[in-house]
Amino acid sequence: MASTDEQTPSKASTPPTDMANNASDTIQLTITHHGNPHTFTFPSDATITDLSNTITSTLSIPPPNQKLLIAPKTGLLRPPFKDATLPLSSLVSKKITLMGSTATEVSTLQSAVTKASTPRTYGGIKPASPSPSRDPRRAQEDALYTFTTLRPLPYLPYPERSLRFLERLRDDPGIRASMRRHRFSVPLLTEMNPAEHTTHESRTLGLNRNRGEVIELRLRTDAYDGYRDYKTIRRTLCHELAHNVWGEHDRNFWLLCREIEREVERDDWTRGGRSVGGEEFYEPSEGEVHDHGGWTGGEFVLGSGGAETVASSAGGQVSAGGMSRREVLARAAEERAKAARRVGGQEGEGDGAAGSKQS
């Protein structure tokens, strides 16, 4: 069992030979949690599992909430460890940062989220009822084509701010309109931990797993001291929504991505419904990438260019060889119109999403 408050025996009471033997039998490891260093003493043969158990007993952070960022080279480790016998002696010279919340902190966050989502009354006044003139079909589509669950990362600072950010994205008029139009339904929208997707060369802005099963967005700055620009994150979300249809970064993908960007700008009535910059579209700055393609089966699918066909949002394909961009867009629009006439109002068939790739 590790200890943090060991007293050093005096030279008079312990012979020098015994002191050398004691020093060789133990190692000291320092980890940083929320900016505070914690030093633990372990037997020389202790393993990473012993460190996890000590964190649980001394800091009250259960194993499922523990994440150890070990630099350099080792990277991120979390229980259950792939190598549960990894010796702590190999980590003595490395910088170890612990990310994780106590069970009490997680419970407090969950209570706050539940309380915030509970309707409240003020001075006996009942909450306003929906307008009777509201289109019931529109309300049904809003409930269906949206992000079912929003999840901030509870072990990062101020998760309630991240939750509000995710809510703003979900309720954005432009995003809602585009998701209805393409019939996108995403079970989970969550934030990305910058520490897990940052290298010396690049920073990943977003990820889409399994054609819209989960979308992760890089909300925070690299130093965890603030949040990135809202419109930058919203454009990243447009990019990841396009991966619901196309996994690779080919011509099909970029046509759909830019179509979604235009729709979001146009239908954002809070900003007057006018796009800024004409035909210019958002591109990440140097060192930042949207992603490396859509996640499929838990692995990256690398994008590739040079595709010779362009797919409409209804799944039709037209030849793109030798045509200008304006001609490609016009031809794709014609194919979407033809596909819509063929569908003839049939809803819920196939994948249940008009923007899904047809087999």
UniProtKB/TrEMBL annotation:
SUPFAM superfamilies: Ubiquitin-like. Pfam families: WLM (PF08325). Signal peptide: none annotated. Residues 111-120 have a biased composition (Polar residues). GO terms for molecular function: proteasome binding. Coiled coil: none annotated. Residues 138-338 form the WLM domain. InterPro entries: Ubiquitin-like_domsf (IPR029071), WLM_dom (IPR013536). Residues 1-22, 111-138, 330-359 are annotated as: Disordered. This is WLM domain-containing protein. It comes from Coniosporium apollinis (strain CBS 100218) (Rock-inhabiting black yeast).
